[in-house]
């Protein structure tokens, strides 16, 4: 038996801290669900970076969503200090009984000390004495592509004596109705009125992406057999340039909403698709949250740790002894051979297998 399990009946307010990128933040959603189910009387807040807030906004378990804007540094030292102090004042006013810190970020250690909760939990690891002494509980992180990130997050709860059931571990992503209506109007204006596959060829890190020639060949093969394909990408110059290169190689043009959607609108586009095809990226995790079947291509990143979570999918990798290396391309050269060796026929076969499974 766990000797230092917390008393959930004494927990009135909880702060969950996840200061990472979009996909990492979305993968915390099962923790919020589980915590609320086990402590329905408690108010659960979250603290994330401002640009990632849409990954958790609207989550039914959340009472308040606080954010840190990375643009505060542009306000100058005094302006940034004022913004930080206002945030700290708002957090202190909540009088948290429990702080759950899901990374090794030192801000979490400072907040644990400044907010003075009765209980606090953070990852184990050698992050220094200050970090170690800032928390009442530490949970071991099973890294090395051996455990999915969702389960690693849930280990924070297990360490406190809260054990998630199987049906509590699903991702959640809320979509407002106006986002759905806008996306459907955009598709209709471009002539898409029936079922479509969504392909998101890009990633924030381009070394995680498939070569443009292969992606163009895949799209041509799909449209040749009558599939409707829609393309998406973030409004980033490098991603849009990559998408333009793909489009320039196509034998038949396809509809694109690249650069036109915010995150909630992209979620609506993914939710209405019959199939999502893409890389290890935020949209892939969004597809998993929305139960849109996925075909995902993985190169340097760990597929066990970051693969599509609890959704019908096919995951494509190559059997290279060096992967997953987590590096920005082979030798740091921004090109990943483990991705380049996956060919179009493998992806087409994976799509066919998944479609057959779903039919």
Keywords:
38% helix, globular, 359 residues, alpha/beta
Describe the structure.
By secondary structure, this protein is α/β, with parallel strands linked by helices. The chain has helices at residues 22-26, 29-38, 76-92, 106-115, 129-132, 149-158, 177-189, 212-224, 237-248, 263-272, 282-289, 303-306, 337-340, 344-358, and strands at residues 13-17, 43-49, 62-68, 98-101, 119-123, 137-139, 197-200, 229-231, 255-256, 275-279, 294-297, 313-316. The strands form 2 sheets. It has a 6-stranded parallel β-sheet with strand order 3-2-1-4-5-6, sandwiched between helices. A 6-stranded parallel β-sheet has the order 9-8-7-10-11-12, sandwiched between helices. Helix 9 (237-248) links the parallel strand 8 (229-231) and strand 9. The longest helix has 17 residues, at 76-92. The chain is globular. The N and C termini lie far apart (46 Å).
Mean pLDDT: 96
Using only C-alpha atoms, the radius of gyration works out to 22 Å
Instruction: Assess the beta-strand content as a share of residues.
Output: 5-15%
Taking the alpha carbons of the first and last residues, their distance comes to 46 Å
**Count of helices?**
14
